[in-house]
Model the fold of this input.
Amino acid sequence: MNAAEIIEEIRGLPHEEKGKVVQFVRELSEEETEIAAAIEESLADIDAGRVYSSAEVREQLKSWYGK
Done:
C-alpha cells in the first residue's frame, strides 16, 4: 500500500476514527522533533568540545526510550 492509498482510506473513515489517525501523526511528529532537538544538542556539545563515550550515549538513549 502506498501513501496515496492510505490517504484515500483515511478519507473514508468516520470522523472519530480520523481523529485517532490525527493523534497518531501528531505523536510521531513530536517524537521526530525530540530526536532532532537531541541531535542538535549533541552537535553543539561536540562543537564546544564536550564529547561523551559511547556508553554514556547508550545510557542516555535508554533513558529516552525505556530500553
